[in-house]
Amino acid sequence: MATLIPRHVKDALGTAVKALEAVESDRAAGRGDVIVARLDGRAFHTFVHVAHCAKPFDDALTAAMIETARQLVEEQGARVAYVQSDEISLLFPPPAGERGEHPFGGRYQKLASTLASAATAYLSLACRVCGVPVPSHVVATFDCRVFATDRAGATAAFAWRELDCVTNAVSSVARHVLGHAAMHKKGTAALLAAVAAADVDFSAYPAANRSGTYVRRCATLCALDDETVADIPVAHRPTEPFMRNLVVTRAGEGAARGLLHRAANAEAVLFDGAAPVEGSPPCLAAAEGAAAADI
Ligand SMILES: [Mg+2]
Q1: How far is the CA of 42 from the centre of ligand 1 (A)?
Q2: Residue 259: pLDDT above 70?
């Protein structure tokens, strides 16, 4: 038979344990901070092998990753997602309005654990929908890191992942075309030259793989079609077009237009969806300065 412990003893135990938990679980970004989360696929080398994915890039898996990013924006409150290789970066700008809050009050552990589990679940479903032949006993999982920064820091984070996309894409193609041994001690520029020398056109691979894909939540003026209007109770039917948050996926050749590392106004492109102005963003100039100081 279970031993019944008096309620006040159990409560005291709970108070002590919650204090232990709170040291980590209460740590949170400030209300005015920008939050950046980066989800990274775990052991994807093994996953793409058992799922028989095509090399160097698998269209179905690329589509499933973009769909995962889209769902993270739609369901988890991020404004922007950037997906490249086996990772997805998410942007959470400071909440609007006096009473707005970051998801989970900006608590890092809640955000990281929820985003990682949501991404894992979304990718499992997206693989089925997009036709990635994943064996039934295999699950691709993500880890997630979350940090608080400002607009400049977040812009630098996304620009850095764009540059990493190029490195990843070139090395995937080089490994496929040249083999692992021929890549020894070669940088990205040398690999690209070696791929071209082997008569392979790197630029012919899909833009989603070479440049990554942005998914963005943006307010759009919408009008409902008659069928949808008929489903809404009369008292609640909109009579005018209204603003609605839609998710737009920027993939394919259009991706190059939106890349931050080639935009002088990178911050406005990332946060506000501004049209990019060709040029070098401040974060690259700052990085050049830091690199020069290190030499
Ligand atoms: Mg990974």
Answers
A1: 5
A2: yes
